[in-house]
């Protein structure tokens, strides 16, 4: 197992991406602490992990609440004596479907401010313990929105760019103290989509789910998109000792999505 006896924390664990990462961590042998704002969804993920033979515990935590995040991580370390991996998958409150000319500044800034605060607070809380251990890995998730030229995505691409930049700064400050900081780069994740109608994204008309997936697939070299299973598998590898030399960089699982397409 890649993560045998490791201790991992996942923020946003009740969501589709956080749940996939949590399942993969547990499958690979980690004891997983699931954090999020909705206890009922966290408990369902934990129950599914336990039913599959894994170990998972839950905690209601708002990743934007500084004291709550610090207290949660301190509690985890108090129970286990360490923290080996921390993964932030919280949503950012993105607003799509309007051009920047028509978008209120608050809608543009919301994902940027949310992403920066959540990433900083969760990273710092884990890093304070990891530097004492002399090891650990802190992870985030971004998407092709940070690299492709797409209209009508508001502050989403800027938020993803900012996450990657923040991770690079953490990596350079923590690397000599044994702590890695890295992120996953994904496409849109079709099995994580729940709406049925989506913005035009510059195509000229709104798209339904099937049209959106086909449009996104056409932007990749492999003609397919990142799935939740892909995210979980990549996250487990990135958290493991097999990725010991990877820091300050993103693991690209975008099926070859090209920046300009």
Descriptive notes:
This protein is an alpha/beta fold and 261 residues long. The protein has a single domain (7-194, 225-253), classed as 3-Layer(aba) Sandwich (Rossmann fold). The protein is 42% helix and 17% strand. The protein has seven helices and nine strands, in the order E-H-E-H-E-H-E-H-E-H-E-E-E-H-H-E. It has helices at residues 16-27, 39-51, 66-80, 105-133, 156-174, 209-217, 228-239; strands spanning 7-11, 31-36, 55-60, 85-88, 136-143, 179-186, 197-198, 207-208, 250-253. Strands 3-2-1-4-5-6-9 form a seven-stranded parallel sheet, with helices on both faces. Strands 7-8 form a two-stranded antiparallel sheet. Helix 1 (16-27) links the parallel strand 1 and strand 2. Helix 1 runs parallel beside helix 2 (39-51), helix 1 (16-27) packs across helix 7 and helix 3 packs parallel to helix 4 (105-133).
